[in-house]
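FORM 7B - TANDEM STRUCTURE REPORT

SECTION 1: FIRST PROTEIN
SEQUENCE AND TOKENS:
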Amino acid sequence: MAKADVIYVNGYIYTADKQDTVCEAIAIKNGYIIATGSTQEINNQNYVDNQTTIYDLKGKTMMPGIIDSHLHTFWGGMQLSSCNLNYQSLTIDDTLAIIQQYLDKDSVNHNNHWLQVRGWLRQEILPVGTDITRFDLDRLNTSRPVILFSNDCHTLVANSIALEKFGLDKNTPEPTDGKIGRSADGELNGILEDAPAMRAFDSISKLTDEQAIHVAKLSQTELNEQGVTAVMDARITETQADAFLQLQKQDQLTIRLFGARELPPDDVSSIEDIPNVINKVKQFAARYDDKNWQPKPGIKVSHVKLFVDGVMQQPLMTARLLKPYNLADEKNRYGDLYYSIEMLDALILESSKAGFHPHMHTVGEGAIEVVLNAIEKMRNALPDADIRPSTAHNELSASHQFARYKKLNAGVVFSFQWAGCSSAMVEQYETLFGEERYHGLEAHGQYIDAGVHCAFGSDWPIDPLNEWYDFQIAMTRQIDSDHPRLNSDRNLTAKEVLRCATIGAAYILKQDEYIGSIEKGKFADLIILDRNPFTIAATDIQNVKVLTTIVGGKIVYQQDKSL
């Protein structure tokens, strides 16, 4: 019998296997788990020799590493190193004051260097419903192009200098996949929504190789400290992939990086464009995919991303609904679809034929419905293909859709934290959707009860990276005791939440053969915690601290030096 390189004994080890087994000890060799069992079964001559390292967990909890299956890894790292409003609710004047302070201290950059302001959410401007425009940003004492890029990725506000550099003016035609804001006189007000915002941001997000590697290191360090061992970047680009590839070549990659390559509407103006677009995704994947998939962390591009609709909160209300928003002054507002039905059907089918798993941003039940219809057509055309389509967010679902997900073997990735709402947001939901539709908001439990494959994705940096706080919201459905509970669904249990963040996410990524649970033959991606999430109060989950993070048997983060 093979001797272990490392064994962990005397622990509470939650395996997340099909039986939710808890054991005391595990043995690891060459980055693989080679055995699980009691301390007596592992700590003996079958697995231990004089070369084996023995770690005594002393009763601490060990579990599989967290798999964050929808986030924007590199953007998170960029936010850590730029002007950051930290998600605060601020007035326009307070916002400008913080930006001006940053400008005054930022002596490193020249006067023509772009300033990207992050950690900002449009709906959090005070008073609620207020918009910041280029006319506000033009009050800043600077000659630099300045943008505010909302962390939901749906809004970008540019000052006049930035608009000029983007090549936008009052003669710019209105796009089909978003909006370019205008004043009453037709002049641009600096607000770009949805795809125009993303295109503008992408056009200026250029970094040197050295800067990009620095950003990649920042992001993986933040993730490892919270117990994340694998991620799926929901909009991977060459810059991001190149930076992480360099870390891999330098043996400094400490997360498993999965990527979804976006298929923007602008790239597929006709059905005839699809083969060329899919071929580009194949080339991208071939460039970065790790051909030797092993315990040592690598990169894999196995998904395509489709941004199907927008967001449902005011003032945007671009999430696609089945019935109109309840608005006194606008009776037929359904929100937006960024692809035609024909195009969506074709993209999901053709990407699936090519072996890529379609991953869709769907917020409203109208967007969910057209995606489910497309998945059904794909299943009929490819009945034997092991394609694992998934949708992210699903903030508003219709009651008939849970069973459809189960029947079509489609998965959903929850951003748990969105079930934590302010009183004002709860009132807005009640007004916008009415009593019947209100019960489809953040319907995590209803999906799980229907037997749907469910996963977790933090969506960082759209929201702060705070995995354990997100888990707590899934278990309480409220920000804290001073805020209302979103009573449209039941609370999740610790086991349900952690399965979403481990084996559930592994299934969505088609990686359940390798990661997501502590079982013989799988990679040793593990975390050690300072308390047991199964025995503490739900309101204490946010206080869980990760003591050690292990990827492929190698410690990549350690707070507790005694282990």
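SECTION 2: SECOND PROTEIN
SEQUENCE AND TOKENS:
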Amino acid sequence: MKFLEYWIYLLLSISKLFLFSLYAGTEFPFSFFVLNLASIVVLSSWTLLLGSKKRRWVLLALLFLHSTLLVSDLWYYRYFSDLLSIALLSDITQMSDVGGGFLTLIQMKDILFFADLLIFSVVLFAIRNRQDLVSRRQKRVFAGGGAALGLALFVIPLAASYTNEEEWLVDEPISNMREYYQLGFWGYHGLDFAQGVGSLFKNDSVTAEEESQIRKLNPNTPSAVSDSAKPNIIVVQLESFQTSVIDQQVNGQELTPNLNALKEETLFFPSFYHQTHEGRTSDAEFITLTSLHPLKSGSVYTQYADNEFDALPELLKAAGYDTAAMHAFEKDFWNRDDFYQNIGFNQFFSQTDFPDNQEIGMALNDEDFLTTSIELAEQLKEPYFAFMVALSSHTPYEIPAELEQLDLTGYEDPLLKGYYETIHYVDGAVGLMIEELKQKDMWDDSLVVFYGDHDSGLTQPRSEMAKELGAETEVELFELDHQVPLFIKQPNTDKGTTIEDTGGQIDIAPTILDIVDIEPSYMLGQSLLDEDSNLTIFRHGAFRYEEFYFEPDLTKPGGSGTCYETASGEEVGIEQCSEQIETAADQLRISDLIIQKNALQKIGQSEK
């Protein structure tokens, strides 16, 4: 057979892509197989022009590079349910400080991605003396014909999609995974690379139509607040805190006794969701402070820290508030020093402003962090806005043995046991903070908010956590993975209420502004205390609205997916969700427009 090693190369390459889909739990339909095979042929057919010995070494190198990129994508996908992107280059310097969590994503079976190198090497050794009796003309015919056929199989479906004006192709895409399914593995990475290069020369001007879309967000009412409605505001972001731990008992022990009790004197939102993506903790901060969505790749903090946002601290500052952020780690970690200053924080208290006491995980323990943050808040001019980012329950969930308090007999996953121990510890720190606020008379007349930033990363189907909590259906797994707690203690109120209405982190800033009678400007969320239903949108186009949950089918054009009734977990007709599908996609695109084109600054300049 002519070009034997090349046919074996194609077989091994496509097999690795199937293995990736198997490990990641992604779809691999026949059309996807054809698309990927076509792209592999397009990218490798040139090797047929080489001499047999040189071609064999080149194909071996290509297999190695393919395996390396695939396994890197797999590790990233296990944590973020997304693929690597050129946009993530700006985040590389931040990864070393959270590397312990990423090590948990590596599994022994992943070595199979490199098994093809051994197989191919054995094949090459077996045929080392075999010579292809192929003329130069035949090589050109095979190489050119393969490239042409592969290109045709790749381009024809795209051309049909473009002709039909399918939104994933003609509009700004809202999901990397939709591009992956529509373009294949190499098509996705090729387009991503081209977009990364193209962004260096991209025209960021805002069109009249885009400006009109953004201006619809602004109610055009004066942002005024009365002196009587200026409570001090304290917002605390709790690391990796899921709603599932609230009221949960393990071996008869309450995981969060203090937060359980807090429901008696605050508004508690059990159907509240995190909307973070690849930026995780920084995404949670960004969404909460700006009421915009995260990027589809990477973090706003590292890519667009200097852009203009109508952020919560800036609006409160304009209303007379002193504003400060507290985070007991390095000042420039995840570019917080630049971003915080840009969005209106007067002060940023970081690692050097806190005592050099016992660390838990990556930073100062939450007991000392939260109590010291109270002392720092006391130094602020009233009224003040204090934003605190806790860290003790950060993956990989390590806590000193002397602080372990739970009997976790019967649990097997060491990460889950560490998670429960750190969550229990943080709950104690929150209880200590609340007690100190009350003793210092800083509780009653203040607006205090506690919320979780994102899930634990331990919520996968058939995980020990999912099994323990009985999460099996799509809706149950979605809620386990996305629900985070939200507690709002209103000023001069000590009566608790559980509010079942749905909402997300994008609604926190509008809710705070609603309570203090400030009209939000360019924000996509809405108050959780008004009478309207909130549409809670997630980065890949899924959403929660009233009693329904929509999960898009990213293997198909936009608008396709499954609508579920959340109470029963049963699939219902798509018409129950159809009215919100395009609204959700449009909101994600408007958010991207505001962020990536720095549209608010350009609109502000046009008004001058």
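SECTION 3: OBSERVATIONS ON SECOND PROTEIN
The CA atoms of residues 360 and 399 lie 6 Å apart.
The chain has a mean pLDDT of 91.

SECTION 4: SIGNATURE
Preparer initials: ____
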